[in-house]
Amino acid sequence: MVAYCQIEHVDSDRDTGTPCSNRAVAECAECGAAICADCRTWCCGQSFCEVCGDYHVTHSCVRKPVQYEQRVFGSHKAG
After folding, report:
1. What are the helix (H) ranges across the chain?
2. Domains of the chain by residue range
């Protein structure tokens, strides 16, 4: 594993990124990039970089989406 995080942070007003200088603590389960604790996301017991984590949650996450309950409240008169 690479000793330092391989993630680059990009400002919206610039085309070039700044490499993260933190020490790597894991590898992305999808792309294999070295990632630090600040750049790492967790899902399904695995570590992901932000881009791969977003893709995982959208396309292949084994967790079920949250089911929202519709709550019907009865009307009542005050007074």
Report:
1. 50-59
2. 8-59
- 15 and 29 in contact (C-beta within 8 Å)? no
How many CA atoms does the CB half-sphere of 67 hold within 13 Å? 3
Work out the pLDDT band at 6, boundaries 50, 70, 90.
very high
- pLDDT, one tens digit per residue, over 37-54 is 999 999 999 999 999 999
Quick one: tokens of 32?
């294999």
- Number of Cβ within 10 Å of residue 53's Cβ equals 22
- What distance, in Å, lies between the first and last C-alpha atoms of the chain? 70
